[in-house]
Structures are given as structure tokens and as C-alpha cells.
Amino acid sequence: MERSVVLPVEAISERLNSDKEFTLSARFWYCDLRFSIGSDLYFMRIENGKVDTFVSGTEGFDSYTISVSAPETVWVEMLREKPEPFYHDWFAASFHHELEFGGDLESAYAYYSSIRRIHACMAECYNAQKLAA
Amino acid sequence: MARFSNIVGRYVYLDVEGIEYRVYFEEAGEGIPLVCQHTAGSDGRQYRHLLEDKDITSRYRVIALDLPLHGKSLPPVENRYWEDEYKLKKDWFMKFWISFVKELDLFQPVFMGCSMGGHLAADLACHYPDEFRACIGLESSCHSGGFDKMFQKWWRHPRLSNDTKAAMMLSLCSPHSPEANVRETVWAYSQGAPPVFSGDLNYYGIEHDLRETASEIDTAKCMFYVLSGTYDWSAYPEACQELANKVSGAQYTLMEGMGHFPMSESPVEFKKYLMPVLADIEQKEQVAAA
After folding, report:
1. 3-class DSSP assignment, residue B268
2. What's the pLDDT score for residue B25?
3. Is A44 helix (H, G, I), strand (E, B) or coil?
4. Which residues of chain A are within 8 Å of residue B159 when distances are taken between CB atoms?
5. At the N or C end, where does chain B have fewer CB atoms within 10 A?
6. What percent of chain B has pLDDT over 90?
7. How far is residue B20 from each of residues A51, B12, B23, B92, measured CA to CA in Å?
8. Residues of A with Cβ-Cβ distance to B172 under 8 angstroms
9. Å from A132 to nearest chain B CA?
10. Whole-prediction pTM
11. What is the pLDDT of residue B156?
């Protein structure tokens, strides 16, 4: 079955590393994030507040400290420019939709503004990719 | 020539349960008193747009206060507050407001509050219906339980900075609200003293519970209105509507595209929903007086 959500990992990495709010809020942050879109996995490594790597797929044995996981249908809604209620934020979606937000909560809460920026930049790049296709 | 706001701020001394509190409030306008309670962890600045709106201040004396420990209302000097865990208690919260209304000699004001203030609107309507002509609950529900661990641990954690609360509050704002208003709304959350937000949520998430008693609210004595925003994941629309449904004669308004902080995150849109409520209160007053 063809996947409808494919994240443009390079564009997202570049966008985040040039984003004024992200680079301010993410300073001193070291973190490995896992994004699960249905059965597809993406891994993002943050090193000292910058996206070091962001890759699609896994050969197994990838560690992570924060995980965002949802069916593809939820991601489609979350990546809209103006999402419907409770798809507008990962935390909100975890209460009202089928999305799991978990892992090291101390890091997640400390850097929630950065995590929100990841969502915003991800949606922006995903929608730009769709428009260009 | 300086351009001044019409808002005037001052302090009043209140006695609540034998403790003196020095309470900051701002006011503007003339007419029916409209007293406003901010959300947990924030302060009266949330109502600054209402306080500067001539359509409202020409008919209402709008008053917005900072609850003790919030904004410019410092903790009472008589308390060794640094030795005790701060927890906002329901009975104290209601008595505080009754004391404020009496001290300012306000005759049956309209009470409006948001979130914990919205919950208080329901509690005041239930327990003190003779003191208020109407209570307006924004993002007000019967109960907001289930988040105890989150706010007791993670929203007051020694290793989490004042960035965290502001960021978490972004999750409650609507993507349709103007960004400048949203950022200002969450800015106030970054300015609260560390224990305040979590302590306020003791009332919001634990002590406020009208699941069995909401139907006791008598709208013949005190009119009751509930307004809720579609993007509020905490006091979400179904929960707010449930409260209104339990109160005979209550009015429920769904605010499309609004979040948890309507008066500050989207004041222009909020006004469209608030004005009919204020008009209804005035009309019912006139009918009752005739």
C-alpha cells in the first residue's frame, strides 16, 4: 500500500536548523526522538540544540528518549496547515486522539516549545513538498 | 501629550479567614459591575482587552484582579508561605471573592471567570447565588480530574524552567488565534512563581467537582452562562456542555475556533460571543425590574 505521509527529512532538518525560535529554545538540548507514522519509523538526533541527523527507516537497535507515535490517518490531520481541534498539538492529540507522546518526560516538558517547533516545521515542509509534487 | 489607557490599577486590603491580603486590581468603565477572574497560573492582565473596550466599559464597570500570589498581589506577609505547599482551596477561593465584592461595595456584580475562574463561576452560582446577578463560566465544566500527577509533578519540577509552563499553554491555544495574542497569553505563564500554577490546579483539577450538584444552581436567582472553545483540550466542549445541560435555564455557547484563553488569545473573536451574553443579562434584568 502506498504511503500517504512521507516526511522530507532533509528539508525538515534544514528548516529547523535555520528556525529562529527552534534554535533559541532548543539550546543545550541533546535528545533522540522517534516518530512512528503507522509502521514507518523516523529518528531525529538533536545535538546541542541542532538537528544532527534525521533519517527515515531503521535497521533496528535505534535508541530514543522521546517518542511520538500515531496511525498515518492521525498524522495526515496533524500535518494540516490549520489542523482540526486536538490535532493541532501533540500533547492535545495524546488526550483526544490516537497518539502516544512519551518517553523521558522531563526532557519532553523542558523542551516542549522546541518539540512544538518540530511539529510546525515538519508540517510546513510536508505541505511544501505536497504542493511541489 | 502622553497617550494613557483608561485602566486604573490600585490595591485593596482584604481579610479572608483572618489573614490580611493586599490585592491588586484594575478597573475601567461605569455601570453594572463585571468582575473577572483569571486562569490558573496567570493574572488579571488576561482581561486587558476587555478593560479597554468602550463598547463594554460604557455599560459595565469592568474589574480584573490578581489573585493573591499572582501578578502584583504578593503573598500575605503574615504567612510563612515558603514553608508550606501552596494549594488553592475551594472554600477560601469563594470566600475571597465574597470579601472582595463586599469590600468594594459592589451590588450583585456579574462574575466572569475562565478555566479555574470558569469553574469558580459555577461554584459561586451554586453556593452564593444571592451575591451575583449572573455568573459567566468560560471553559467551565463539572470536573477536570485525571491530570493530578501531571500538574503535581511535571508542572512544578525543580529541573523544569519557566519555559515549560508557557510552552504547555501553547497546546491549549487555537491555531486560528492571532499569534501575537497567543504569545502574550503564554508569556504571563512564564512569569508565575514556581508553585502557583500547580497549586491553583488543586482547585481546578481536584476540589472543583459539580458532577453531583450542578443541578442545584438556581438560574432564577443567578443567571448562568457557559462558553467553551473548540480547541480547549482541558475543559473541552463536551465537558462544558455537560455542565450547562445539568443546570436548568443555563445558556451554552460553543466558540468556534477558540482555545482555552478566549479573552486574551483572541479578544476580537471573543467579543462576538460575549456581547450577546451581556445583552441577555441586561434584557433579563429589565424584564425582572418591569
Report:
1. helix
2. 98
3. strand
4. 106, 110
5. N
6. 92
7. 52, 10, 9, 13
8. 92
9. 24
10. 0.96
11. 86
